[in-house]
Amino acid sequence: MTRSAVLLSLTLLTLAAHAENWPGFRGPTRQGVSSESNLPLHWSPTENVLWKTPLPGAAWSSPIVWGDRIFLTNATADGASCHVLSLDANTGKVIWDKHVFDQETLQKRQQNSYASPTPVTDGEAVFAVFGQGSLVALDFDGNVLWKNRDFDFFSEHGLGASPILYKDTLIMVFDPSSRTDRENKVGWKIPWDGAAIWALDKKTGKRVWEGKRGKSRLAHVTPNLMTVDGKPQLVSGAGDAIQGHDPETGERLWSVYSQGEGVVPSIVIGGGLAYSISGFEATTIRAVAPGGKIIWEQTRAASHIPSMIYDKGLLFNINESSIATCMDAETGEVIWQERVGGKHWASPVLAEGRIYFLSEEGETIVVEPGREYKELARNRLDEHTQA
User: Fold this and answer.
1) What is the CATH number of domain 313-387?
2) How far apart are CA 302 and CA 279, in angstroms?
3) Contact status, residue 239 vs residue 277, Cβ threshold 8 Å
4) Confidence band (pLDDT; 50, 70, 90) for 105?
5) Burial of 80 (0-12, 13-18, 19+ CB in 10 A)
6) With helix as H, strand as E and coil as C, how does the chain read?
7) Do residues 270 and 314 make contact, with C-beta atoms less than 8 angstroms apart?
8) Per-residue pLDDT tens for 275-294?
9) In this predicted model, what pLDDT tens digit does every residue of 39-48 receive, in sequence order?
10) How confident is the model at residue 1 (pLDDT cuts 50, 70, 90)?
11) Tell me, what's the pLDDT at 187?
12) How far is it, in rounded angstroms, from Cα 12 to Cα 354?
């Protein structure tokens, strides 16, 4: 989101700050689901807004919350100056604003920014990633603990995936464009073997393991974790594959072809399956069983950017053209579709029996998660929002 318009997310998250931590992209389970209660149903520029803090720059990363602190990233100087910030969740006051990197403002898509990955925290440190694959850890006082710029990331789209934490490691997925792209400024549909999954020691920033994809296309998918036969698996999506890796070692356990390109939506887990959307080529929603078997495929109103919500055997999705969809998660059957209006890039959030769909125009459509479309509220802040 533009940093001068952090208003809406902070309105929702601030009310939850004292009860539930929101430590990374899409929350504590990376599913976009909150256990918080007493959240507002209605708001406007003059109602249910606790505070507003204008900030310079632009970033599509989401704010995260730990206790009474909010952390977010920013890119100023037209994207060249990378910052991590901490705000007081009660007042919106900026506690510190730390410049951590300078970066080249390389090619990216218009819908991306130079600070798109959402940071993650374990309650002691904050971990952030910026456009060229630069990683940094800071303590809650804003002191830099370590930096890692070992992965020379380049994508014609920019960087979009967010890091996650697993035990004592920080896991980051890099699915860049091929090296030919840097020379020729092309690269659409060019698989290569330069993609990697990195696990870093969260205390030192040193690499613990590197997982390989094989030949694959560019993507921006934030991975997720699921339990298979009592053991954790890291499930991630490349531009043309869905894969499972061992989060302890980086070993690739399985891989299944998933035709796509420039994939953005994050992996969602539910009912023993992993759900993925395949991006800008032959956009398809796929349900995949551990081991790589595709259970079903669905092409109706699949999104290019927003991730899905899984709730009680149902999947909820919204695409850029404002078509909200409810599907049966077991079969892929479309149960309902509704055009709600606006352009949608942000992933929805489920909290207190409500799904919040946020449009680029700053309007949030609140609906009930069920087998019939039931709109509960519309709230407009007239701010440009992307995340």
Assistant:
1) 2.40.10.480
2) 9
3) no
4) low
5) middle
6) CEHHHCHHHHHHHHHHCCCCCECCCCCCCCCCEECCCCCCCCCECCECCCCCCCCCCECCCCCEEECCEEEEEEEECCCCEEEEEEEECCCCCEEEEEEEEECCCCCCCCCCCCCCCCCEECCCEEEEECCCCCEEEEECCCCEEEEECCCCCCCCCCCCCCCEEECCEEEEEECCCCHHHHHHCCCCCCCECCCEEEEEECCCCCEEEEEECCCECCECCCCEEEEECCEEEEEEECCCEEEEECCCCCCEEEEEECCCECECCCCEEECCEEEEECECCCCCEEEEECCCEEEEEECCCCCCCCCCEEECCEEEEECCCCEEEEEECCCCCEEEEEECCCCCCCCCEEECCEEEEECCCCEEEEECCCCCCCEEEEEECCCCCCC
7) no
8) 999 877 778 999 999 999 99
9) 999 999 889 9
10) very low
11) 55
12) 13
| Residue 12: pLDDT over 50 | no
Q: What is the mean pLDDT of the chain?
A: 88
pTM for the whole structure:
0.92
In this predicted structure, the answer to whether residue 360 has a pLDDT above a threshold of 70 is yes
CATH 2.40.10.480 residue ranges of the chain are 313-387
CB 268 within 8 A of CB 227: no
Q: How confident is the model at residue 3 (pLDDT cuts 50, 70, 90)?
A: very low
> 86 near 80, Cβ under 8 Å?
no
154: closest CA among 120, 183, 115, 191? Answer: 183
Q: What are the tens digits of pLDDT across the range 134-151?
A: 999 999 999 999 999 888
